[in-house]
What we know:
By secondary structure, the protein is an alpha+beta fold. It has helices spanning about 10-20, 60-70, 75-85, 90-120, 130-140; strands spanning about 25-30, 35-40, 45-50, 55-60, 125-130. About 50% of the residues lie in helices and about 20% in strands. α1 runs antiparallel to α3, α3 (about 75-85) runs antiparallel to α4 and α4 packs antiparallel against α5 (about 130-140). β2 and β3 (about 45-50) form a beta hairpin. Strands 4-3-2-1-5 form a 5-stranded antiparallel β-sheet.
Amino acid sequence: MEIEAFTRRQVAYLMTVLTLIVPFGVFWQGARSGNVQTAIYSMIWVLRLVHGEFYSFHAFDLTYSFTAVTNGVFSILFAIQVVRCFKGDASRRIAYVLGVLTMLIPVGLGVPLMFSALEQYEILLYMGPVPIQLIIGIQLLRKTEPVTVTAPWKEA
């Protein structure tokens, strides 16, 4: 199916799935002791592996969900903006800015933590985003018509 043929409702469903269900981050930790842990997470679930083998799966876990939502707030805003752009209600420029923030915030928070863990605990750590939502969202944005926003909201 061509992107141009998507309805607004299909774009809204797609962005909802991409935002809530598709993984948006990876946490990987390796120590000198050989202990390797991995967590792949989305807004509503996390899959944990130890030494590359299944360890646990949590859905709607309060701790993980709170962390995911606070780190992924720009992912939520980006999804909303993509749908608004597809409807013709918003400018693509703001969507692109939010898209950059979906990557910038997790990297900006993760890099200092990675260096700190290496320095203090001699643990090699990777915390980073998985840009699936961003890539598909940008593809959707490229297929929308440019809109010049003249007021902060449309009149009814």
